[in-house]
Amino acid sequence: AQSVAQPEDQVNVAEGNPLTVKCTYSVSGNPYLFWYVQYPNRGLQFLLKYITGDNLVKGSYGFEAEFNKSQTSFHLKKPSALVSDSALYFCAVRANQAGTALIFGKGTTLSVSS
Amino acid sequence: DAGVIQSPRHEVTEMGQEVTLRCKPISGHDYLFWYRQTMMRGLELLIYFNNNVPIDDSGMPEDRFSAKMPNASFSTLKIQPSEPRDSAVYFCASSSGTGAGYTFGSGTRLTVV
Q1: Which has the closest alpha carbon to A65: A51, A86, A83, A44?
Q2: b vs e for B58-71, b when ≥16 Cβ sit within 10 Å of the residue's Cβ?
Q3: Beta carbons of B99 and A51 less than 8 angstroms apart
Q4: Are residues B42 and A99, on separate chains, in Cβ contact within 8 Å?
Q5: What is the distance between the alpha carbons of residues B37 and B58, in angstroms, rounded to a whole number?
Q6: Which pLDDT tens digit goes with each residue over B42-98?
Q7: What torsion, rounded to 10 degrees, do the Cα atoms A100, B109, B88, A49 define?
């Protein structure tokens, strides 16, 4: 069975500081990993994904994530947070096999203060 | 590209009534997914289709829920009869392959009173 955990319901950071949103996963075989962002009353927007290759993945709006196979983690990071980054962030995982779909974590609310 | 289009954006209905949610995926995408979002349970996968064929409907909560995809450009999610606990935001998403990201619609906010 696939599962993904986002251990923090909320992350608070000051504008200009680095941010990290944590994600750990459980899946059989090699994972496909994704991060999505959701702004109020909107659908989810794709940020970045890891399929294979370099463990450090760069995505939209200056975000990046690092795949760590030994720790089964895929934490989202940004060197310098903006107030406009405040939103709900979802980590998602699926197994690299046919017949599976993305399973999402419960989400982490990021609040960036000015 | 207009993206994934869902209708209606908002639906308020009385308990016991039939509700139909609609989704138009991105042209050329061969996967279509229905998710439900609530505060308590987060994002739950209800069902997904590949080339219009349902692949996994294990997330459909009860027989009151049904989904169809009669062609590559249209899908419906029906709840009959609706109950207050069905109140949620229902998202449709589509993708073009197993490694591709999903494109989500704006969702339908369903309120059953």
Answers
A1: A51
A2: ebbeeeebebebee
A3: yes
A4: no
A5: 16
A6: 999 999 999 999 999 999 988 999 999 999 999 999 999 999 999 999 999 999 876
A7: 30
Q: Rounded to an integer, what distance in angstroms lies between the CA atom of residue A114 and that of residue A83?
A: 6
Cβ distance B104 to A43 less than 8 Å, yes or no, reads yes
- Residue A64 is encoded by which pair of tokens? 């990046």
pLDDT tens column, A15-64: 999 999 999 999 888 889 999 999 988 889 999 999 988 999 999 999 99
Q: Give A 12-71 residues with CB within 8 A of chain B.
A: 32, 34, 36, 42-46, 49, 51
Q: Is A113 exposed, middle or buried (0-12, 13-18, 19+ CB in 10 A)?
A: exposed
| Chain B residues bordering chain A (beta-carbon distance below 8 Å) | 4, 33, 35, 42-43, 45, 48, 55-56, 91, 93, 98-99, 101-107
Given this model, what pLDDT does residue B2 score?
79
